TrEMBL record:
<comment type="similarity">
    <text>Belongs to the class-V pyridoxal-phosphate-dependent aminotransferase family.</text>
</comment>
<dbReference type="InterPro" id="IPR000192">
    <property type="entry name" value="Aminotrans_V_dom"/>
</dbReference>
<dbReference type="InterPro" id="IPR015422">
    <property type="entry name" value="PyrdxlP-dep_Trfase_small"/>
</dbReference>
<dbReference type="GO" id="GO:0008483">
    <property type="term" value="F:transaminase activity"/>
</dbReference>
<keyword id="KW-0663">Pyridoxal phosphate</keyword>
<dbReference type="Pfam" id="PF00266">
    <property type="entry name" value="Aminotran_5"/>
</dbReference>
<dbReference type="InterPro" id="IPR015421">
    <property type="entry name" value="PyrdxlP-dep_Trfase_major"/>
</dbReference>
<dbReference type="InterPro" id="IPR015424">
    <property type="entry name" value="PyrdxlP-dep_Trfase"/>
</dbReference>
<keyword id="KW-0808">Transferase</keyword>
<keyword id="KW-0032">Aminotransferase</keyword>
<dbReference type="InterPro" id="IPR020578">
    <property type="entry name" value="Aminotrans_V_PyrdxlP_BS"/>
</dbReference>
<feature type="domain" description="Aminotransferase class V">
    <location>
        <begin position="55"/>
        <end position="365"/>
    </location>
</feature>
<protein>
    <submittedName>
        <fullName>Aminotransferase</fullName>
    </submittedName>
</protein>
Length: 382
């Protein structure tokens, strides 16, 4: 298989010694991203704190993320994690007398459901949309979202099995019922094209350390422009105010747009990393990245079956990503044994996950699947 991104591989030093297939947990670090981290450190060492430069970098990172998802920069806020973004929305949803239900799915990352379960306001008005074999049919949204649903929370891609949802179709159902749509795009942003306007997404959150090639500590929150003014954030801080540098104790006006959801001083080192990572991703182009990764996914499904492995989730590339999950009761142990072979994967409960990015090759996936098959079929005692 031709590798259209071969020239990019030299930007990821870990690939010279390891097979890195753990993008669903944390991507390989690129030299431009490492360089941006060094730029931040060097600026502090040589020139001290420079607020003007830091705020400029923050705006540059926001602008690049807005381009990645087809939004406007003013619709983007910076937070520290997707959990923080979901929590900020959860405690700030506008009161609507006849809408007091939150719907989320059983394929959401557990932390998302846990946040909704922790909200006293909605504790008796939660609807869990159940899937079958880790996948959800559109009919389930039709059935379980009602005219009392205030917000519906869904993952774009399942962290567990790579199942990819059709957000545009879900948005149509959700909005017909009068609900808002919140999308967790942590497992999609960076390798799957997203256009929040075309998909009609109301709110979206994504962190930078996985497919977006960044580091922990930085996440972006998108809120549709016409919605942001309806929210009165309960989690707040000086960056969420309209005059943060006025230092006026009694002034508490919110900033315009999504910025009102920002809190305290962000992780600027994370924003330096995010800016460089997003520049790299935009250059590589998510549309082309997805096309290449679909070829890898098709090969992974075929080769995994040939090796007698049980791959869970969708069995075609129609509604899945290149994240391939192989069932094993000893997934964590297999992950450790693969690490000894310089193969980086990621286990979750009873699956070992192979998650390539555009820098990976078919040969790396083939070698990894062969190694997993050898371990699972007893050619090496686990």
């Amino acid at each position: 298989m031709d590798h259209p991104y071969h020239a990019y591989r030299s930007l990821f030093p870990v690939l010279s010694t390891h097979i890195h297939l753990g993008a669903c947990s944390g991507s390989a670090l690129a030299l431009p991203v490492s360089g941006a981290i060094d730029e931040y450190r060097s600026a502090l060492l040589k020139g001290g704190l420079n607020w003007e430069a830091l705020l400029k970098k923050m705006e540059e990172a926001k602008e690049k993320f807005s381009r990645l998802i087809g939004a406007e920069k003013e619709e983007i806020a910076v937070l520290s994690s997707v959990s923080d973004a979901v929590s900020a929305i959860a405690v700030s949803l506008p009161e609507q007398p006849h809408r007091n239900q939150i719907a989320f799915t059983d394929i959401d990352f557990p932390a998302i459901g846990q946040i909704w379960l922790a909200q006293d306001r909605f504790k008796y008005n939660l609807a869990v949309i159940h899937g079958e074999d880790g996948m959800i049919r559109l009919e389930q949204f039709e059935k379980q979202i009602s005219d009392q649903t205030l917000l519906t929370c869904v993952p774009h891609v399942s962290y567990y099995n790579g199942f990819k949802q059709n957000l545009k179709d879900i948005a149509g159902i959700v909005h017909q019922k009068g609900s808002l749509l919140f999308v967790d795009a942590y497992q999609s942003a960076g390798h799957i094209p997203i256009n929040v306007k075309d998909m009609d997404i109301d709110i979206l959150a994504a962190g930078t350390r996985k497919y977006m090639l960044g580091i922990p500590g930085t996440a972006f929150l998108y809120i549709k422009r016409e919605l942001s003014e309806q929210f009165q954030p309960k989690m707040t801080g000086w960056f969420g105010k309209d005059k943060p540098f006025a230092f006026d104790l009694h002034h508490s006006g919110f900033a315009e747009g999504a910025k009102r959801f920002e809190t305290g001083t962000p992780s600027f080192i994370g924003l330096y990393a995010a800016d460089a990572a997003l520049k790299l991703l935009l250059e590589a182009a998510p549309v082309q990245i997805e096309s290449y990764l679909q070829k890898l996914a098709r090969f992974s499904l075929q080769h995994g079956k040939e090796k007698g492995l049980q791959i869970i989730g969708p069995q075609t590339v129609h509604n899945r990503t290149s994240l391939i999950s192989i069932r094993s009761e000893q997934a964590s142990r297999i992950e450790s044994l693969l690490r000894e072979k310089n193969i980086i994967t990621s286990s979750r409960n009873d699956v070992i996950r192979i998650a390539p990015h555009f820098y990976n090759t078919k040969e790396e996936i083939e070698h990894t699947i062969d190694a997993i098959a050898a371990l699972m079929h007893g050619r090496r005692k686990i």
